[in-house]
Every structure is written in C-alpha cells, then in structure tokens.
Amino acid sequence: MEVRLKILYTSLCHTDVYFWEAKGQTPVFPRILGHEAAGIVESVGEGVTELAPGDHVLPVFTGECKECAHCKSEESNMCELLRINPDRKVMIGDGQARFSVNGQPIYHFLGTSTFSEYTVVHSGCVAKINPEAPLDKVCVLSCGFCTGFGATVNVAKPKKGSTVAIFGLGAVGLAAAEGARVAGASRIIGIDLNSNRFETAKKFGCTEFVNPLEHSKPVQEVLAEMTNGGVDRAVECTGNINAMIQALESVHDGWGVAVLVGVPHKDAEFKTHPIHFLNEKTLKGTFYGHYKPRTDLPVVVEQYLKGELELEKFITHSVPFSEINNAFELMLAGQGLRCIIRMDG
C-alpha cells in the first residue's frame, strides 16, 4: 500500500521549523522533514490500485483510508489509520524506515518527508490531481492553504455580509482571511501583534486591523466596540492559548462561532466562563480545514484551475533545493509567506 514519489516542488511550513527546533515532540534524529509538496508517482507497491506511475499527486501529512468509521462519516476527516502522528517515524506496514545511509535508518516525518528528491508514502496519504495543474503552485494546498481556507469556508461558514475576525496573520491566517473574502464577508478584521503584516493582509481581504499591543483594554472588548457586540465569526490561527480564549469571547452572543486552528502548547489549558456558551456562542476546532485529502483535494485543485482561488499571492519566494537553508532563514526572520523549494536545483 505504498508509493514512491518523485518530489518536484516542496515548500517550507512553520511546522517543519517547529519540529526542526525540537519544540513539539520527542526529538528524532536523523530525520527528513518536509510535508507540503507536489510530485509524480514513480512506482507503486503491492495493493495500490488507485495510483499509477506518472500520476500527478499531492502527498498529505494526514490520510484517508476510505474504510474506517471516520472516513465513512461526512462529519470527520480524521482517518483512524492514517491521521497525523508526529511521533511516528517509520512506515505503518512493517515498522521500518524507507530511507537509510550506510545501513542506518533515516526516519520519516509526518508520513511524507518531502525534503528529498524521492520519498515513500502510504497510498492513503496521496491525492491524485489534474495533471494540468502547475505543481509549483498547488503544492501549497497540501498543508497551509487548506488548513486556513477550510477553517473558514468549511467550519466557520460565515454568511455573506458577515463580520469575521482572524487571529494571527501568518500564511494560515491569511488563507483563513481569503476564505472569508470568498464567502462574501463584508468586514474582515485582522488581529496580530506585528503591525508590519497588515499591509500584506489587505491583499487577502482584510478590511481592518487591530494590534492588541496598541490597546489598553482586552482585544475582545475592542472588537465588541468595533462591531456592536461582537463579530459573527472568529478564526484563531496562532496556537496561543490567550488568542484562543479571546477568539471565543469576541464573537457575538446568540449566533457567534469561534474556530480554533492553531496548535497550542501541550500543557496549555483553555479557561473561560461558561456563560459564553449559555449565551449561545459556539466554539469549534478543526483539523486540516475539514478536508478529506483524497476526496476533497482534487476538487480544490479544480477550483484553482477555474480561477476561483488565488494561490500565487501566497508564494513570495522560490529557491533551488541546494539553498533550502535560505528558506529556513526567511521564515525565521518572518519574511514572506511561502517559499517554494525547487527539487531540480
């Protein structure tokens, strides 16, 4: 049930940096990072029937076996067999790595390990897409874009003319803002501690901005004053527990919905007064924008090909594979959104 992929383009996501810095898990070394990518099937293993050599594909850090209770449910995309597992460093078939040097294993990352010219991935984590799609653009769909965009359009579901607050204006937050724009929100309020991000955010539909550091009162009170009682929808894309609490407390009573996207510190706890829920505010979480990788990604690619989605504005840099360290430096410096890494160089 495995396929070997020739990776043509991969991009750096903050999750790669997080694990490279060994902040999110029991550190594993040596390991090949990378999980946002596009490529071509080079060969297929036993039992693989839906993929063939030459297929254009997106490897994804989570999967869809199509057989478990989650995959059969319209309400879940959290495949029992193939859901994300940051601690798993080997293939699930035999518990072995597919990479090695001098007989010693090099471990996998999120089931994808795309910082490599070739990688081996479970076939359930591979989405077959239209070969007409430019791989150097649609590679961003395999993580960041779908996570943010889907959080808004699939989970928050703002109505046309509504007011949406986006907490955190990194790549995922801007994708969430783009979702609000596409959904027809009339006001999209971006919240970030870095005011330098506000100009860029305008390209993604943000109409107003709040930097909490510039206010003496809590940001949820600022938003309530700006919106006559609260926003209709809030999407949190920071992973900061305080931002998560603020997102819930900033939505309007009666109909407000807050959606959590960011991954918090493992010891963080969410504390708020239950009256927010009794006043009919709703708090939701989401994983990968509620997209099922194999079923939904080909559809998202078609949306892009029809001109319904703009992926180009997320891509701010491009480097050959030999200069991958430059991509890390750009992200650590907070420059740009997505840096595409070309595997041919």
From TrEMBL:
A GO molecular-function descriptor: S-(hydroxymethyl)glutathione dehydrogenase [NAD(P)+] activity
Family annotation (Gene3D superfamilies): Medium-chain alcohol dehydrogenases, catalytic domain, NAD(P)-binding Rossmann-like Domain
In this chain the Alcohol dehydrogenase-like N-terminal domain maps to 2-129
Identify the main location: cytoplasm
Q: Which UniProt keywords apply?
A: Cytoplasm, Metal-binding, NAD, Oxidoreductase, Zinc
- List each copy of the Alcohol dehydrogenase-like C-terminal domain by range: 171-298
Q: Which PROSITE patterns match?
A: ADH_ZINC
Query: Which GO CC annotations does the UniProt entry carry?
Result: cytosol
Q: Which GO terms describe its biological process?
A: formaldehyde catabolic process
The EC designation for this entry is: 1.1.1.1
- Assembly and partners? Homodimer.
PANTHER family, alphabetically? ALCOHOL DEHYDROGENASE (PTHR43880), ALCOHOL DEHYDROGENASE 1 (PTHR43880:SF9)
Q: What protein am I looking at?
A: Alcohol dehydrogenase 1
Q: Which organism is it from?
A: Rhynchospora pubera
